[in-house]
Amino acid sequence: MANNYLKSESKQLATWYFTFAAIIFGAQLVFGLVAAIQFVMPSFLYQILDFSIARILHINALVVWMVFAMFGSVYWLLPDETEIETVGIKVGKLLFWVFAAAIVVVVLVFLFIQVGPADQTTIWFITEGREYIEAPRWADIGIVIVALGFVANLFLTGIKGKQTGIVTVLMADMIAFAGLYLAGMFFTDNISVDQYWWWWVIHLWVEATWEVFVGAIAAYGLIKMLGAHRQVVEMWLWIEVSMLFGSGILGMGHHYFWIGTPEYWWEIGALFSALEPLPLVAMFVHVLYDWGKTQGAQEAHGDKVSVIKNKPAFTWFVLNAFGNFLGAGVWGFFHTLPQINLYTHGTQFTAAHGHLAFFGAYATILIGMFYLAVQGKNGIKVMKSTKLSIWSTAMITGGVMGMTVALTIAGYVQVIVERAQMGATWSGYFDSQSGVWFTQAMDWRLLMGVITFLGFILLATDLLRTGKSAIHER
Ligand code: HEM
Ligand code: HEM
Ligand SMILES: [Fe+2]
């Protein structure tokens, strides 16, 4: 890979975004561990960092690091795809600092102020109280300005430079991604209406716009790492985009079953969300097919087979194909029909799906992008796996899988005891969660969480060390 890093300010900005993302990822895991310890030891940090606050920090950090890494990915690939420097990069750099500073302030407020009075001051300065996007309104407005700047960078560059399918898809996708955030910004005092719009952000992000983003990144990665043919990769991308939007938009109905919306959402939600795994199968096949095809072509030419230009990144991209399909497709499909969701709604089953889906669909491919950036930054031609990269990949993936299995078991206990046997009563809630199956599952989740966290430390070490090690071809 030619070292065009030094010449490209866009790529430098991307590495800032990636670095900040990795730090917030670490923070996410720390707060997850705090919340997991509190399940096992309820008095842990009581009234200092209560479960509610640890949970807010865990899941908002999740969203923030992923958004940072997504912006970083776009700044990273733009010069490669458009063959020009990103337009307005100075403004882009300034906005990075605005964004990072705003996030730090929001985190400090969550940590130290935590709650406020039930009036407008809390909404403006402490928290808006919508799960996953709990930042106060001043920060919301800041985030919108930063996002607009980012979209402007992308559009001006896309229009001026070479227009590939990947860039075109990203242009459409990122404007939808930024626009949807607005649906989570206004306040109504009707909880059904509030939830209705809130899902426009949460569901339409992760099951439509973010998935399209992943399709575009996977296409870019396959071209970079395998030398896959652009025509083939982009053809897949268009198919995936149409399928994702086809099922994802009305699939949102699976969140409208029990929030006070009309009952026709049962049918709409059941039908369209049941179709949602299809594009994920397509994305899965796409990665494996291109991999196989490229190897076949190399064999036919008598080339050395499988010169994957970046082994660790490619491993994470393949894990993405599997993880997206398993976490979103399979674990999502499990509970997406209203007849089943009646029993599983809001149990640890949901948390099992939430963990595997966010991890499988997004954490994996974004970690892959970290590796592509480390390679580009250090001008490494062929990047091999290291002991650390192998161990960290195994521990993070194994840890999250382990947590998912533990949470799935806990969810089943809730479904059977709390919902089926005891009819979703108050005492059923406590009976199911004090039983041995549930409490042991929480122990296992904590253990698996620790393994995930240790894996993260190894990952960070590997990323920081790669530039210095000599095993790579330059
Ligand atoms: C990468 C894509 C996805 C991500 C990141 C994701 C993540 C999540 C998360 C975090 C929740 C919990 C939301 C809450 O706090 O209430 C959730 C709920 C849900 N997801 Fe997904 N999901 C994805 C794809 C899917 C797909 C493809 C399906 C169906 C085929 C699905 C079905 C559901 C259902 C039915 C619920 C509601 C659970 C309940 O009633 O408690 N998800 N998802
Ligand atoms: C050190 C590892 C981790 C631990 C110990 C951990 C622990 C937790 C705990 C205790 C909760 C609160 C669950 C509840 O309200 O009952 C939670 C929620 C959540 N975590 Fe994690 N987590 C970890 C890593 C991750 C990772 C890697 C991801 C995704 C990439 C993730 C995504 C989520 C999501 C989406 C939720 C909300 C789930 C829902 O509302 O259904 N976590 N986590
Ligand atoms: Fe959804």
Unreliable stretches (pLDDT < 50, length at least 5) are none
* Helix/strand order: HHHHHHHHHHHHHHHH
Number of helices: 16
Distance between the termini: 8 Å
Number of strands: 0
Overall body shape: globular
Bound molecules: protoporphyrin IX containing FE, fe (ii) ion
Q: How much β-strand is present in the residues? A: under 5%
How large, in whole angstroms, is the Cα Rg? 22 Å
| Helical content class | over 70%
pLDDT averaged over residues: 94
Judged by helices, strands and strand pairing, the structural class is mainly alpha
Report the major sheet: none
Question: Brief description of this entry?
Answer:
With 474 residues, this protein is mainly α. It is built from 16 helices and no strands.
Describe this structure in words.
By secondary structure, this protein is mainly alpha-helical. It has a domain of 163 residues. It is built from 16 helices and no strands. Helix 7 packs parallel to helix 10 and helix 7 runs antiparallel to helix 11. The longest helix has 36 residues. The N and C termini lie close together (8 Å). The model has no long low-confidence stretch (mean pLDDT 94). The protein binds protoporphyrin IX containing FE (HEM) (2 copies) and fe (ii) ion.
